[in-house]
Amino acid sequence: MNVPRSFGRRLHVAMGERGPFCAGIDPHPGLLTAWGLDDDVAGLERFSRTAVEALGDTVALLKPQSAFFERHGSRGVAVLERVIADAKGTGALVLLDVKRGDIGSTMQAYADAYCDPRSPLCADAVTVSPYLGFGSLRPVLDTARAHGNGVFVLALTSNPEGPEVQHARRPDGRTVAATVLDHVRAANAAVLAGDEPLGSVGVVVGATTGGTGEDLAVGGPLLAPGIGAQGATVDDLATVFGAALPQVVPSASREVLGAGPDPQALRDAARRTIDAVRDLLFRASTRA
Ligand SMILES: O=c1ccn([C@@H]2O[C@H](COP(=O)(O)O)[C@@H](O)[C@H]2O)c(=O)[nH]1
């Protein structure tokens, strides 16, 4: 049987070749209007296909946000299926941002939908929420691994409401987020003991979170949304991630998409962020 190349390895290569950056595909109603499109399925399709064609050969990771497709009903989900297929054909890896989390038996159905290549909604990786208990994610972790796919687990999210749950302390004094980070570290430990350069289980840590005080070295990629529209800058990444900076994949959606619909302007916006991240990495490496 062919063993698929792991998501962590593929992402490591893509980050090296294209630079560490994830472009979000978030077809907000306001962005559709700004691009001269109607807020309907045809507008959704034109918007997202333009974004994939403009950015797919430039960025390491494309991240369609499922909510903006689901709000158009079943025809919107059909557009999402097409976007995933087209994006996979560009050379970028595809992370479906859908933040699923449920009891374990239901998680197997989500795993079948998002992590099994027989499903049209299967991307290279998927976002999940561990707040029904990390163990409930087991079906997604196992199915993703079996097919060489990745999983990003929410740890310290970029929104201001996140800390009331994620900074809460257990009886032993550790935060809930630290527990999530520990579980992800353990999930990656076995593959990193082999020859994998990067684990396939990542975490989401917002670029807006400031100095977290947590150990962010989990062996997998660190997705950092919050750049641009949510107020964080590329330079903030140094404060948030410190020594873990080389594993960070900064992510921005509106910051890039706001430059459209001109494909070259979209590419330029993505390249500006990639250049800024590379510059930050260089400055950090010369200080180390
Ligand atoms: O903690 C999180 C987790 C996910 N997101 C998602 O990322 C994008 C951010 O969009 P911007 O336009 O760059 O603000 C969006 O899809 C969120 O659902 C996040 O922001 N924070």
Which features does this protein show?
288 residues; alpha/beta; TIM Barrel; 8-stranded parallel β-barrel; 12 helices; 8 strands; 46% helix; binds the ligand O=c1ccn([C@@H]2O[C@H](COP(=O)(O)O)[C@@H](O)[C@H]2O)c(=O)[nH]1; OMPdeCOase_dom; OMPdecase_AS; decarboxylase
Q: Would you give an account of this structure?
A:
It catalyses: orotidine 5'-phosphate + H(+) = UMP + CO2. This protein is an alpha/beta fold. The protein has twelve helices and eight strands. The chain has an eight-stranded parallel β-barrel, surrounded by six helices. Helix 3 packs parallel to helix 5 (73-88), helix 3 (41-55) crosses helix 12 (263-287) and helix 6 packs parallel to helix 7. It starts with 6 loop residues before the first helix and ends with a helix. The ligand O=c1ccn([C@@H]2O[C@H](COP(=O)(O)O)[C@@H](O)[C@H]2O)c(=O)[nH]1 is lined by residues 24, 26, 65, 97, 157-158, 204, 206, 225-226, 228-230, 251-255.
The percent of residues in helical segments reads 40-55%
- Per the CATH scheme, the topology name is TIM Barrel
Largest sheet: 8 strands, parallel, barrel
Count of distinct strands: 8
CATH architecture designation: Alpha-Beta Barrel
From the spread of the alpha carbons, the general shape counts as globular
**Count of discrete structural domains:** 1
Percentage of residues in DSSP E strands: 5-15%
Number of helices: 12
Bound molecules: the ligand O=c1ccn([C@@H]2O[C@H](COP(=O)(O)O)[C@@H](O)[C@H]2O)c(=O)[nH]1
Query: What integer is the average pLDDT?
Result: 96
Gyration radius, rounded:
18 Å
SSE run = HEHHEHHEHEHEHHEEHEHH
Identify the strand order in the major beta sheet.
1-2-3-4-5-6-7-8
Detail the poorly predicted runs: none
- The CATH class turns out to be Alpha Beta
CATH superfamily: Aldolase class I
Task: Determine the N-to-C terminus distance.
Answer: 43 Å
Structural class by sheet pairing and helices = alpha/beta
